[in-house]
Prior knowledge:
Elements: H1 10-16, E1 17-22, H2 25-41, E2 45-50, H3 55-64, H4 69-74, E3 78-82, H5 95-111, E4 117-122, H6 136-148, E5 153-160, H7 166-174, E6 178-180, E7 192-196, E8 202-209, H8 214-226, E9 232-242, H9 244-255, E10 263-266, H10 270-278, E11 286-288
Amino acid sequence: MPGTSAGANGDAASERHAAVVFSTDAEWADHLVAFVRAGFDRGEQVQYFADATDPGLVTRTLTDRGVDAALAVRRGRLVVTTAAETYLAGARFDPDAMIGLWEEAVEAAAAQGHRGLRAVGEMSWGARDIAGADRLLEYELRIHHEVFARLPLTAWCFYDRRLLPRDHLEVLAAAHRTCTGHAAGPGGGPPLTAAPLAGPAGFRLSGSAGYESRRVIASAAAALAASPAQQVTLDLSALDHLDVASLTGLAHAAARRPPGRPVRLLGAPPALHRMLELFPELGDGLEVTGR
């Protein structure tokens, strides 16, 4: 994982933004200690945003595992705070505000002489009835290109399997190109997942886009509309089904983008071509390859 500079390509960003799924306290501790030690070895500042975990347990666990957490805190190498002070500092969770917070945090770490920033964020709050929590998937999709492709930041999103519904967890984990631990449970997975592309700005939809996956479509649409990239690619080659409502949501998102910043549809299924022939007004803001 790079420590001194942000990767200028999607592959580097893929390595630095990871979902970490665990089921036991011991697994949590193993991931925590490995992450912090790697950051200290690289001269990076390490921040931990606790939610379900008591912040004191973070430093005690590190100390018990041979890391001088107290000294690291005094020297500013380790900062343990909470989700309430970071992700949820406003009246509601706001992806744009959080993206701005990352930029400020990276600048502050550099100003303090650190070679980069690495952070752990506990994401269990995403399953609670919190204002804006429905935008978490949008956020996870956006930060691959809007944050990690630009900044010297390494972050692991901690997902505790005991605190999140299975389908919710699987969708969120799939929004990371790197996942440690097993997100999938027994039986079939969610009907639709969305993930950032490794190279160009954009996303890949996999599965079946219909009524049951409307929340995933809404999040992907919001991420498309908000992307600052000149051109965004939406890869549909792994879709088994795309209904009119889903296409409409994506098309409306493309229409909300500034003029001259289209959404390029890659691998569009034949059914989509037929829908655009029936509803040509949905094609505004879309570039369909092979059409």
